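Researcher: Structure prediction, please.
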Amino acid sequence: MVKSKWMLDPAHSSVDFSVKHMMIANVKGTFNQFDATIEADPDDLTSASIELNIDLASVDTCNEDRDNHLRSADFFNVEKNPKMTFATTNIERKGEGEYNVTGNLTIAGVTKSETISVTYEGSGVDPWGNVKVGFTADGSLNRSDYGLTWNSALETGGVLVGDKIKISLDLQASKAE
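Model: Predicted structure follows.
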């Protein structure tokens, strides 16, 4: 294929995360609103340009009180910083369909370079003749690197919320006309 523009299909995509709670369990969540600008050759991502924008107010952990706390100044401070963004700066091929994608991640006004593992899952044509591609991505980051340091010490030792955030993305995109 040739490098071309792709439109993210949010109905068939997800941006998910998990974090340790009380150092004994994982709390999972998702962001329900996001979009991306993609220019790529799916068969060779090394020259791709990708910008992912996530609406932080759309955080959903299946607990309204926790979601509201995440939106507050203790965490994302969505009134001041409504979006999280990721823009590619370098892409390296690891193997067939496997890549390390490095980019600038901005959360709560702080920008850091992060690298995630991306797998090209393949392409196909839907019943309406649209060319579709699929990707999965996994990575992790330390929330404290972005100034997200709110926590509470536990009586038994340790903290309420872990620092390491695991990220998992499933993305499907349509070739733009």
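Model: The first helix runs from residue 64 to 71.
Researcher: Thanks, that helps.
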